[in-house]
Design goal:
Blueprint (H helix, E strand, L loop, with lengths): L16 H34 L20 H8 L15
Amino acid sequence: MQTSPDNSHELPPGASRRGLFAGLGRWAAALTLGGLAIKLLTGRRGAGQNHSCDNEGLCRACGRYDDCILPQAQSARQLGLAPRTVGESDSRG
């Protein structure tokens, strides 16, 4: 009597190594894109918390005035206050 070989190492119907690796690649790409999206969306919120003023609150005389993310500089830009140039004096006296 002939015994049948053990078929426990066979893949389920329709499964292949190529399909497995393609699926793993798709999941890896999806997780990477999702992680990057989360990082980009949450990165801006926390940026102002770690930023500190290097110019004692004198926004218009600061070299970072145009790119500063602190609320005081943002308010000054919204009011239309241009950065001071070298040698410009205060108009108050």
